[in-house]
Structures are given as C-alpha cells and as structure tokens.
Write a structure and sequence with these properties.
Strand content: 25-35%
Structural class: mainly beta
Oligomer: single chain
Distance between the termini: 47 Å
Number of helices: 8
C-alpha cells in the first residue's frame, strides 16, 4: 500500500444491473521448479463442476483484484467482502466468461501468520473453481527484502504448492515468490506473469527465462508496484516500475499489458516499447475507498471480434445487498464509473501480436472437403477450377472470353466467360485476393459498369442441368464478394448472380416487373444486397434485403431456403429484412445460370464491379455451421 500526495479523483455512482461477457478456458505449460498439470486445450469447455466456460469463444474476461490488506488487518479483519467477490466470480464464471483472476499484492496488512492464514482460508472459496495467481506486496512480507528473503508465512500459504493443482499453473522461480500461468482463451494461449515485491537479479533472470521459453504468447505482467497516478488519472512509472520497464517490459514485445496496485488513486497510461508497440500500464487500488475497497474487483473483458478490452470496476459485496437497505456509502461504491475505472481499450490483437505470433492464414481446402450432400454446383477460380494455362496464378492477368470455370461437383454445370458488348479483355482479371475463410485462395476481379455499359459474365451452357433445377425441397446459394475501395462510379443494381429468363414467362404476375429474372442477387445504389426470388410454386416475389455492405472487405453471403421460407445470412449473421411469405422452389425456365451480372428484360446492361470468389449451390437447406465460411 502507498498513496501519492494527490487526492482521489472525482466519482459518480451508477448501478449497472448486469455485468456479463461470454466465457473462456485454460491450459498449462511448465518452467521452473514446480510442475504444471497440463491441459490439452482440445475440449471446447473447461472448468470444475458446473463452472464451465468456452476456451474458443472470442470473448473472455480477466478478473483483477487489488490490495485487500484492510480486510485482513489484525483483530479488525473482515473477510466477508472478499468471500462475496469470490462467490460472484465462481457463480458468474460461465455466463460472465471469467478465464482467470489475478491478485496484485498486499493481501494482508501486517503479513502476520494469523492474517495470512485467514486470507488463505478465504481463498478456498474460489480454489479449484476459478484459476488464479497471487503475488506478495510490501505488507505481506518484510518490505526491506527482495524475493530471496527465504521462508515467510506468505510463502507457506501462497507459495507454489498452492497452485500446482491448477491446470493453468506453469511454474515458479526457485525462491517460490514469482510465478506464471498459461491460460487458453479465445482459441489461443495467454501468459500471466506474476512478479514479487522487489524482484531480485535472480527473479528477473527467471522471468526472462519464462518469456524466452514462451516466445509466441501475449503476456500480461502483474506486480504490486509499477506506477503512480496524478489526480486526473495520468499514470507514471514508479522507481520500481522504471526498473521493470528497463529490464523486462520494454525489450519483450510480448508484454502488452502491465498491471499493479500499491498506489492510489488509480490511473493508466500507454507506453511505447522498443518494438514501437503500445504497452498499457494500469494502477488498480481501492483500499482508500469505503470499507477498504470492500473486495472491489475489475473485469477486463477481452473481445477479439470488436478488437477492444472493456474494463469495469465494482463491488460484488454491495451489489448483493438489498437496494433498499444499502447505506449511502454502499450505494456510492457499488460501481465506479470514472475514466480510470470504467473504460475501453482499442487493441487490434492480430496486429499487436504479429511480430512475435503472426497469424498463419488457413491453407486452401480441397474441393472434396466443401461439397456436402446435395451439392449441385461448385466453382472456384484457382488452378483446380479455372481452365487455361497461366490464367490462374498471376494477379491482373486477363481472363479471356471463352475461358471455362469447371463445375467441381461433377454435375456438368461448367461456366464460360463472356465479355459484354465491346468490353476490353481486362474487364475480367484473375486475383489471388480472397476471404480468409474461403476454401480457394483465388477470385475473379470484375470491372463492370455503365455509361458505357461494360463488364463480363460467366454462364452455364444451354444444356447445363442447373438451368432446369427447381429446388422445391430447399436450397442454399453461397458466394464471397468484395466491393472496391473507393467504390467509384454508378453501379446501382449491378448483379452478382442470377438465372436468365423473365418471371413473366414463368406466369408470375404479382412482382414489381414481369421483366425481372426469376432469381437474382443484386447490389442496390446504397450497397444493400437484394435477393429476389420468384418461387416455382407461388405467384409471388419474396425479397430479402441486407444492410449496406462495407467496401474494401470480403463478405460471405448465404441464401437458404427450407422449402417454405428464404433467409439470407451475411458473414454468418441472419439479416433483419427476410420475407415471411412462403416460397417453394425457384421458377427456373431452363435458362443459363449467370455469375457477374443480372439480365433484365433480356439485356445485360452492366457487369459486376468488384471481386467474386468461391460460389456453391446445394439442393437443400444448410445450417450456418455448414457454410463455406462457418465462422464468418
């Protein structure tokens, strides 16, 4: 414990009824004198009893518990607030996806055997239910010593022997005062490095050894004393923090976050390491608050989808009280909402970790692995699917008229390239650009437009079986597209794919126009997707509409019909504007299927503008998990 000469920051209270985030898991590795109980990381869930969590979810939380010393202070000790915090973390582990808890030191006020024993007994509330780390603060041991101090009550209670049964425990330094844990969360491993009060030369060498042994793991360093803060929350390295920065943090790019307690008020800063990357340094300490902080805890909620870490600070002990019976100080301290207590960090995790743990893109998947039962056509534009020597493999190479894109399903629905009107040969070129989860690592770049009308299309032959399929039992149509950035010119109502033939010729009279094709996927002037279907059975035109598509980014599109209703998915998410009207089958007229354009009134007035990748048609409804990009 320590405090600066500055008063605490201004506060305002807010009760947030629910504090939730999805879950994560744990795995272990070994270094040092203690062995780890290794976890394979293979199961999708991990935990004890009913306290399970998903190790592969892209969202997880780290609980951070600062100085609890005033709750373990001689004969005035009261462990109940901390017990309630532990009860909360255990109860919320699955729903609030808590992967791990780390204590930042100063567990007790005097480090006496009685205080340490009471604290150790209190930690049994969470032991075996949520993995955790503990480190010594200056109040837990003789503050005039470093980690070579030898035997203490703290070491006997919170030494390596306490953690060996945890699947996250990786090992401890020979003296027993420094430790590390490896957790599996968001589909990868993370390392929590817990450094003792005043790490010695031997302790620092051990810590560097841990980092050297795990060179690809992102690291959160925890210690008791690393920074102090001004009244406005601006943090600065303390003397000990500067030593850790110079000796361990700045030269190890893996360390992207460093957390400490000891000082108040809380604060934060962002420092730049030797690799030119951000390191987030935070102070968390609430012992100056009512009831010694009342077991207040922080949740660092990692969201690898949104690329943020959301931080919130609250007291489960006060949260559990009857709202009508809370005292004014209890109500004020339920949740802290100032800028150093509740905030979000924007972190592009893949970019931040790229230097030491580059993301390895998935390898192309062979066609045989992406043709489920009922596949009637599958086209891809790599060398396996695009005929013509030299066409596939060199970016920008023109794909000549007459080039064949083979139907890899074997059903004879090959496509042939056709240039529209007087379009130049470069209206269609080969590209290695692709969606990260696309089976083939290739696409076609369409340079279509109007005024003048230009572009290219790929069509089936007049005898292709796909032309006459009616799909009355359901269907799934999938494709990958990318719109250029900047999105220049007028490309309103350009087609992505369709069947030729006017719906009026199929006897449909209730649609917007009898000149429309019987089935088409188009892009509106606002870059919305429009899927128009004239069913084989009903006289109707059920239409699905998406949100505005982004530019410069690949999008996976799936349209699924179960024989009665059509639902569109964009990047694996069901869109809002799906029709409820019944739609059975597709009113195909024996006319060719087309990629790269939509025929209206038997005219192709423009071609698609952008990239189109793998395209697949299945003669049944697929579940999202069976899409070509199941986790898009």
């Amino acid at each position: 414990m320590s405090r600066t000469s500055h008063p605490g920051p201004g506060r305002r209270s807010l009760l947030q009824a629910a504090l939730t985030v999805p879950a994560v898991g744990a795995a272990g590795t070994v270094l040092g004198t203690q062995s780890a109980q290794a976890a394979t990381g293979q199961p999708s869930t991990a935990g004890s009893g009913t306290h399970r969590f998903d190790t592969e979810s892209p969202r997880f939380a780290l609980a951070v518990l600062p100085d609890t010393q005033y709750l373990f202070d001689a004969d005035s000790a009261d462990p109940e607030p901390l017990k309630e915090t532990f009860h909360y973390l255990v109860a919320q582990r699955q729903e609030a996806n808590i992967a791990f808890m780390t204590h930042l030191g100063d567990v007790t006020e005097h480090g006496s055997e009685e205080e340490i024993d009471l604290a150790a007994d209190t930690f049994r509330t969470i032991h075996g239910k949520v993995p955790y780390s503990v480190l010594a603060g200056n109040h837990d041991i003789n503050s005039g010593t470093d980690d070579q101090r030898g035997d203490t009550a703290y070491l006997r209670a919170f030494g390596p022997q306490r953690f060996t049964s945890m699947p996250t425990f990786g090992g401890a330094s020979p003296d027993g005062y420094n430790s590390y844990h490896v957790l599996r969360a968001a589909g990868r491993e993370w390392l929590v490095l817990a450094l003792d009060w005043r790490a010695s030369e031997k302790g620092l060498a051990w810590a560097q050894g841990v980092l050297d042994t795990h060179p690809t793991l992102p690291v959160i360093l925890t210690t008791h004393d690393i920074a102090w803060a001004e009244d406005n929350g601006q943090a600065h390295l303390s003397d000990n923090g500067q030593m850790l920065w110079d000796r361990i943090i700045r030269g190890n790019d893996q360390i992207f976050m460093a957390l400490g307690g000891h000082y108040w008020p809380p604060g934060r800063t962002v420092l730049t390491n030797d690799a030119g990357h951000d390191v987030h340094v935070h102070i968390t300490n609430y012992q100056d608050r009512y009831y010694g902080g009342a077991g207040m805890v922080r949740l660092y909620s990692f969201d690898l989808v949104r690329q943020v870490v959301d931080v919130e600070t609250f007291s489960p002990w006060f949260l559990a009280r009857d709202p009508e019976k809370r005292t004014p100080l209890e109500a004020e301290t339920i949740e802290l909402t100032g800028p150093v207590d509740r905030f979000s960090l924007d972190i592009d995790f893949a970019d931040r970790f790229r230097a030491f743990a580059p993301v390895v893109p998935p390898a192309p998947r062979p066609a045989s692995r992406v043709m489920p039962r009922g596949t009637v056509a599958y086209w891809r534009f790599d060398s396996s699917g695009l005929a013509g020597a030299g066409t596939a493999g060199t970016a920008g190479t023109a794909v000549a008229a007459g080039t064949v894109a083979r139907d890899l399903s074997g059903h004879g629905n090959d496509l042939r390239v056709q240039l529209l009107h007087d379009s130049p040969s470069k209206a269609l070129t080969w590209s290695g650009d692709h969606h990260t989860e696309q089976p083939a690592h290739a696409s076609l770049r369409f340079d279509g437009g109007k005024s003048p009308d230009r572009g290219a299309i790929l069509t089936t032959s007049a005898q292709a079986p796909l032309n006459s399929l009616t799909f009355t039992s359901g269907f799934t149509i999938e494709t990958f597209i990318k719109l250029p950035e900047p999105f220049e010119g007028d490309h309103a109502w350009m087609g992505i794919l369709s069947w030729e033939g006017r719906n009026g010729d199929a006897g449909k009279t209730t649609g917007w126009s009898t000149e429309e094709p019987t089935c088409s996927l188009n892009v509106t002037p606002e870059r919305f997707l429009q899927f128009v279907l004239y069913p084989h059975v009903q006289d109707a035109d059920p239409t699905s509409w998406s949100h505005a598509l982004p530019v410069g980014r690949w999008t996976h599109i799936a349209v699924v019909n179960n024989g009665h209703r059509t639902v569109m998915y964009v990047d694996g998410s069901k869109i809002a504007r799906n029709p409820t009207r019944s739609a059975t089958g597709i009113a195909t007229l024996g006319k060719p299927f087309v990629i790269g354009g939509t025929q209206f009134a038997e005219q192709f007035d423009q071609g698609f503008y952008g990239w189109i990748g793998d395209t697949r048609i299945v003669n049944r409804a697929l579940a999202p998990k069976d899409f070509m990009a199941p986790s898009a």
